[in-house]
Design goal:
Helix content: 40-55%
Keywords: Membrane, Transmembrane, Transmembrane helix
Number of helices: 13
Low-confidence stretches: 1-9, 11-18
Strand order of the largest sheet: 4-3-2-1-5-6-7-8
Distance between the termini: 34 Å
Strand content: 5-15%
Mean pLDDT: 88
Largest sheet: 8 strands, antiparallel
Protein name: Putative iron-regulated membrane protein
Number of strands: 8
Organism: Novosphingobium sediminicola
Order of helices and strands: HHHHHEEEEHHHHHEEEEHHH
Shape: elongated
InterPro entries: PepSY-ass_TM
Pfam family, one: PepSY_TM
């Protein structure tokens, strides 16, 4: 009799066609609930740390002297600072992120975990020998690699794919109860039914932003995912090792001349980053940001030999379409691709993920309904 009623009811039949059988939906719900209960903490951590990193410049401007100073272009002082760092026997300079993008201090990266911030006159503002001494340093390691190097990065990428699965299954589960949708930022009460209802509605509200976060994050963390999604834009072109042996910086280098050469080669570019030769890069590297580039450090690159002579440069605007799409992954993940609103959109994504993950775990493990005997 029940089967006959189901077959004769067009609404039930249409619903079954869209969502499949009730058994299938119960299986999806069980999978969604259990996976969320197990991995919710990890996703909540990624969401919360991501929000901090989106606004770390604001954090530094509030907590560090000179971080809010207006950025001025003084190549002579910048050249003198690099020269001084190279002559410092206590710290081996690895790279320097030049003041800009809202931050009024230079950030030096030393070999190992050490680093320092310098004001634009070249004076040390603060320095550290361990990443645990600076929250913005260890939080980024937690967000990207879970303090576990390449293995942690792979886990983060897999978590992004699972998160994408949460969005898809969550929307399917929400659709059945869409008539009860209510716009609320927090649960009406801390009861399990209220938390579950809020979880469904909040998940749908932030779903588009979460998709962007999960997909871009998985692409950066997992080369296989990146290759699959970039396949329509052309064949992969792996970076080849430099033909020349690793250049040894041969002092004295005229860093002011090096910087002047970079500015002459890219007159409309903003100098953002200087890196010395290392195991991955055989020459001195300078990165510049041209107008219209989304990546904060820029993707226009100039390479100099150990004597400070320009050897090669690459204009970000002439890269193949696949490379340009690849370069968009990071600014899409951080919201820099949409100046102004983009960072706040991704903030909503991060806060939403943190709330969805934490409340899911809490309601699953600690707010089980009491059984009546």
């Amino acid at each position: 009799m029940n089967r006959a009623k189901t077959a004769s009811n067009p609404k039930i039949t249409a619903k079954a066609k869209v969502f499949g059988t009730g058994k299938a939906m119960r299986s999806i719900e069980t999978l969604h609930r259990w996976t969320g209960g197990i991995l919710g903490v990890l996703l909540a951590v990624l969401g919360a740390t991501g929000v901090f990193l989106l606004h770390q410049t604001l954090f530094l401007r509030w907590t560090m002297a000179h971080a809010a100073d207006p950025v001025t272009r003084d190549d002579a002082r910048l050249a003198a600072l690099v020269t001084h760092m190279l002559g410092d026997p206590a710290h081996k300079l690895r790279s320097l992120r030049v003041a800009g993008d809202g931050l009024g201090v230079h950030r030096a990266y030393y070999t190992g975990e050490g680093g320092a911030y310098f004001d634009q006159s070249g004076q040390i503002v603060t320095q550290w020998s361990s990443e645990w001494q600076r929250p913005e340093v260890w939080i980024i390691d937690l967000h990207r690699r879970l303090f576990s190097g390449d293995t942690g990065e792979a886990i983060v990428g897999i978590a992004g794919l699972i998160g994408l699965g949460f969005v898809i299954t969550g929307v399917l589960l929400w659709w059945r109860t869409r008539s009860t949708f209510e716009f609320r930022l927090t649960p009406k009460r801390l009861s399990r039914p209220a938390i579950l209802r809020h979880h469904r509605d909040l998940g749908v509200m932030v779903a588009p932003f979460l998709v962007l976060s999960f997909v871009s994050g998985a692409m950066m963390a997992l080369p296989v995912v990146e290759d699959v999604l970039l396949a329509p834009f052309g064949a992969a072109q792996r970076a080849k090792a430099p033909k020349a042996p690793t250049a040894q910086v041969q002092p004295p280098i005229d860093w002011q001349a090096v910087i002047a050469t970079a500015r002459a080669q890219v007159p409309d570019g903003e100098l953002r980053y200087i890196a010395l030769p290392n195991a991955r890069e055989a020459r001195i590297l300078i990165r510049m940001r041209r107008p219209g580039e989304w990546t904060p450090n820029g993707r226009t690159m100039l390479w100099f030999d150990g004597k400070g002579q320009l050897a090669q440069w690459r204009d970000s605007r002439t890269l193949p379409i696949r490379a340009r799409v690849k370069n968009a992954e990071y600014p899409l993940h951080t919201g820099d691709a949409l100046p102004g609103a983009g960072r706040w959109i991704m903030t909503i994504s991060g806060l939403g993920l943190a709330m969805l993950g934490s409340l899911a775990v809490w309601s699953f493990w600690f707010r089980r309904p009491s059984r009546r005997g």
